[in-house]
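Before our next group meeting I need something from you. Please put the record directly below this note.
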Amino acid sequence: MNQLIKPKSFPLAIKASFMPLLALLMATFILSFAAILTKLAEFDLGPGATIFNRYWIAAVAFSLWESQKLVFPGKPEQECKSSGHLTINDVILFGIEPLMTFICISLWAISLTQTSVANANLLHNMTPIFSTLGAWLLLKQQFDKRFLVGLGIALFASSCIEFEDWFIAPSHFTGDMLALLSSVFYAGAFLARESLCNKYSVSTILLWSCFLRAILALGFTLIMEDHLFPLTQSAWLSVLGLGIVVQGFGHGLLTYSFKHFSSSFVSVCLLLDPLITALFAWIIFAEKLTPLNMVSFLGVIAGIYLARLGKGSQKAG
C-alpha cells in the first residue's frame, strides 16, 4: 500500500523544490529589465527622481495588495507568519534593509564617476562573496566545497565579460573601493531581508522597504535635482515599469525565494542579471554582444547548478 502512495507524492516533492527555483530565475529575468527601464527614464528624469518614482509606485502597489488581504482574508493555514509581535530586532531589520540598499545604490552611482564602468561592474559583482561570508559569521550557516566551487565558477564567468576592459590605475582607487563597498552593503541588505522572511510576508517586507527607500530618495532628489515627477509619457511608462514590474513582480519573486534559499545562493543566481541585461541591450539599443557573453552565460548556469547541489543553497533552519 505504501508503495502505491509514494509515486503519487513524488511529483509534489519535485514541484515543492522546483517552483522556488523557477521563481528565483524568473525574478532574475525580470530584474534584468531594471537597467533598460532606468536608462529610458533618465532621458527625462535625474537618477534620484527615477529611484523615487520607482519606490513610491511600488509602495502604493504593495499597500493596495495588503489592503485587499484585509478585505478578503485568506484561510488561516494560508496566512503568513506576519501575525507575530513586532520586536525591536524586527524594527532594526526593517530599517537596515532599505538603508543598506539605498547606500549601495548611492555608492554605486558615485563609483561610476570615479572609475571605469568595467571596474565598477566587476567589483560590484562581488556580492556573493560577502553574503556568504556574512551568512557564515552572523547566521552560522555552513557551506561545503561544492557550493563554494559553484560560487567561484559563477563569479568568474560573470566577471569575464569585464576583464577585457579592466585596468588598475591609482586615479581609480577611490571609485574601485566605493564599488567594492557597494557590494558589501548589497550583501547586508540581502541578509536582512532573508531574516525578515522568517517571520513576515513578502508584501509586508517590500511595502515598508519601498516606503522607506522612497523617503530617502525624496530627500536626495529635492536637494540635488530639479523635478520629482516625469514630464513625458515615455518616462511615466518607464517608472511604472520599474515600480510595478521590476520592484513589484521582480523583487516580489526574489523576496519569496528568500523563504526557500539562502541569501548566498540568491546572490549567485543574480550574477545572471548583467548577462541578460547585455542581451536586452543588444536587442533594444543595438549594443555589441560578443561570443564571450554567451560563454559567460553558460559558465554562470554551470556555477549555479553546482552551487544548488551543494550544502548552503537551502535556507537554514
